[in-house]
Write a structure and sequence with these properties.
By secondary structure, the chain is α+β, with helices and mostly antiparallel strands. Helices cover 35% and strands 25% of the residues. It folds into two domains: 1-64; 66-95, no CATH class.
């Protein structure tokens, strides 16, 4: 449950059920894949699947009492103008 700062903790801003939280990573990636080649679409599907797994792992870690922030560790350039940010998890606020 999340509570906005300055609000009554007995009245959460909005309740959530962590087991049912849906990030729609795969669906959003597929929606954006209209003009991609088949190889690019396959790579995006793989990325979306792995991001879903990462998000699940983050939720489990947060539920165990740690805070996680991702920061860009570096940027990978693929040539021809394509690039991707490589992320490093920063663990903070461990109980």
């Amino acid at each position: 449950m999340f509570v906005l700062e300055g609000t009554d903790p007995r009245q959460p801003a909005f309740p959530i059920e962590p087991q049912r939280l849906r990030t729609r990573v795969r669906e959003r990636a597929e929606e954006q894949a209209v003009t991609l080649t088949d190889a690019q679409k396959a790579a995006i599907r793989t990325l979306a699947n792995e991001l879903h797994r990462l998000n699940q792992a983050v939720m489990e870690a947060v539920a165990s009492g740690v805070s996680i922030e991702f920061v860009r560790g570096s940027r990978h350039h693929g040539g021809e103008g394509s690039f991707g940010d490589l992320l490093i998890p920063r663990i903070t606020g461990a109980n």
